[in-house]
Amino acid sequence: MAQIKAPRGTQDMLPKDAHKWEEIETVLLSLAKNYGFVQIRTPVFENTQLFERGVGDTTDVVQKEMYTFEDKGGRSITLRPEGTAGAVRAAVEHGLLNDALPLKLSYLTSCYRYEKPQAGRLREFHQFGVECLGTREPIADAQLILFARRLFDCFGLDDIRLELNSIGCPECRKHYHAALREYFSAHTDTLCDTCKGRLEKNPMRILDCKSPTCREIAANAPSILDYLCEDCRTHFEKVKEYLDLNDILFTVNPRIVRGLDYYTKTVFEFVCDDIGAQGTVLGGGRYDGLVEELGGKPLPALGFAMGLERLLLLLESRGYAFVQSARPDIYFCNIGDNALKIALSFCDEFGLDGYYAGLDLMGRGLKAQMKYANKIGARFTVVIGDDDIEAGVLNIKDMQTGEVYQSDFASFVETAENLLLQSTIEESLGVENNE
Ligand code: ATP
Ligand code: MG
Description:
Layout: H1 15-34, E1 38-39, E2 45-47, H2 48-54, H3 60-65, E3 68-70, E4 76-79, H4 84-93, E5 103-112, E6 124-133, H5 138-154, E7 161-166, H6 170-185, H7 193-201, H8 212-218, H9 230-245, E8 251-252, E9 264-271, E10 280-286, H10 290-293, E11 301-307, H11 308-317, E12 330-334, H12 337-352, E13 357-359, H13 366-375, E14 380-384, H14 386-391, E15 393-398, E16 404-408, H15 412-434
Parallel strand pairs: 1-5, 7-8, 12-13, 12-14
Antiparallel strand pairs: 2-4, 3-4, 5-6, 6-11, 7-9, 9-10, 10-11, 14-15, 15-16
Helix pairs in contact: 1-5, 5-9
Bound molecules: adenosine-5'-triphosphate and magnesium ion.
């Protein structure tokens, strides 16, 4: 029968990469916890309206990229293109914003966008995101950015550029929009069709357009920084001051507007040059209008999202040393059914004690079992035959040194676990000594 392939723009996570994903996810979620973020999980699909309102109907995401379909009950449903709208929807729906604020949420989710697949750009991808809801204070912006920087530091990526901007509030944007309309209306013929439509509705979107001609025109457009109101200007100054105080380097890039319509004030991106055109690994900012837009009370908020496929590409391009995938601590090679039964129950005991013990599940002969144990890198092996059972003694072989240790059945698990502990300690000391 013809083979069925995965849909275009999707990627399977294969066993050979599992340990990389596990490490990435563990590092991100545990650091998030240290910074006070608590996990939230929301549905893969939402009512389409959520994203039309929560992402904005003049954005590329909503205009071009959503996976929208009608379900069997005739509802318009969309696969989530990003994580913020769902998280804020859930916070409002469950009254989480009535508790003491701020509400700090984190998530690790798959996202779906109908885009042209290329390196670092997929149709199904994954985001790690955090949201901090309920605070208008610039210190929150600074701490969020500091946290993002620390995430990169954790992976040794301390040279990823931070680009920062403020896109003001609806008040200062009124004047800025007018200036942009005036500027772009001199170029209406050359703007792409989508941007022609944006000119009236939301001219700032044109700054975010990927079309080369629009980009060229946008390069000389007026800068938002010249239009910030007093409040937004002070806010931005404060954020920069706090970042300076913590030695967080950044450049101000007035062209950053971000993909969502409801961003206000601070916006930022972490960008690198070594993974090709899709260099933005993390993007975020303040979205003071979103909670109200989604039916909650007017509450300021901010957050960011990091693309995990891009992070992985970056780590691989830098030769990042991932912690190796788990190899068995101990492997039982058996001769005969009695030995197999004993191995099964020992494996269970080791598993519950936190060790990975393996046994033959393939009906291999002794020689093939030993070859297999070697191949999968077992730390210790134990051969169990009828003689061993009769003698009540087992031999535990250290596969690195070749040394053999003996133990009776009753104290076997304890002896083996002590050996494992000892070898872990020696390995970690060895690593330190080699440094
Ligand atoms: P881009 O400008 O590259 O299209 P974006 O502004 O649309 O990015 P956001 O909506 O801010 O991206 O999403 C946050 C992060 O999610 C991005 O910085 C990126 O790392 C990742 N990301 C976005 N779209 C994709 C995609 N199609 N495939 C893989 N990762 C993506
Ligand atoms: Mg995009």
